[in-house]
Design brief:
Blueprint: E1 2-7, H1 13-23, E2 28-35, H2 41-49, E3 53-55, H3 58-62, H4 66-73, E4 78-81, H5 90-95, E5 100-104, H6 119-127, E6 132-139, E7 149-156, H7 163-187
Parallel strand pairs: 1-2, 1-4, 2-3, 4-5
Antiparallel strand pairs: 5-6, 6-7
The structure holds 5-O-phosphono-beta-D-ribofuranosylamine.
Length: 189
């Protein structure tokens, strides 16, 4: 049984979806949820779901090996970023090279990079009058949203769509595809 760690900074609806997907899965389980925000709703979800969780600060993440050590002690095989807003330090990337994936709520390389998260992305997509948007699942490297793309899925944007409507469509794509792609990757480990 492979072990998955999920990092999230916010609400954690993708985290919950991934936890539930793997609950009845022979290949893997989510065994820990980590957040850089101690009041993030994802930590409440973790408790409700019965998954151990921890929060950490900048010092822990960037100037100590606390997080890498925790992942190693827990025997984590795969790291999933699901709405995690901090840049991942090189030490973590080195340890989990090719085993850290992120989801971005747009069709990268469009609408990626620093500051392009949450509603900022969907506001920009609507402002630019895009006719389609989507999700990108990609490997994580040391720069925001620049790792190799693993999977993309598209959804159409109608002229009358508000950013909130676009966000909703994108979230549904995320729920549908993210766990399955993680499962596929884990199957190759
Ligand atoms: C998702 O749209 C994800 O693509 C982005 O942040 C959002 C997180 O949503 N990176 P949630 O916390 O999983 O509800």
């Amino acid at each position: 049984m492979k072990r998955i760690a999920v990092f999230a900074s916010g609400s954690g609806s993708n985290t919950e979806n991934i936890v539930k997907f793997f609950r009845n899965n022979d290949l893997a389980r989510v065994t820990i949820i980590l957040s850089n925000k101690k009041d993030a709703y994802v930590l409440e979800r973790a408790q409700q779901l019965g998954v151990p969780s921890i929060s950490f600060n900048r010092e822990d993440f960037y100037n100590s090996n606390k997080i890498v050590r925790t992942l190693e002690e827990q025997g984590i095989d795969m790291v999933v970023l699901a709405g995690f807003l901090w840049l991942v330090p090189q030490s973590l990337i080195d340890k989990y090279d090719g085993r850290i994936v992120n989801i971005h709520p747009a069709l990268l390389p469009k609408y990626g990079g620093k500051g392009m998260f949450g509603m900022n992305v969907h506001n920009a997509v609507v402002a630019e009058k895009e006719t389609e948007t989507g999700i990108t699942i990609h490997y994580v490297n040391g720069r925001y949203d620049e790792g190799n793309v693993i999977f993309q899925a598209k959804v159409s944007v109608n002229p009358s769509d508000t950013p909130e409507m676009v966000a909703d469509k994108v979230h549904h794509l995320e729920y549908e595809h993210f766990p399955k792609i993680v499962e596929k990757l884990i199957a190759t480990l």
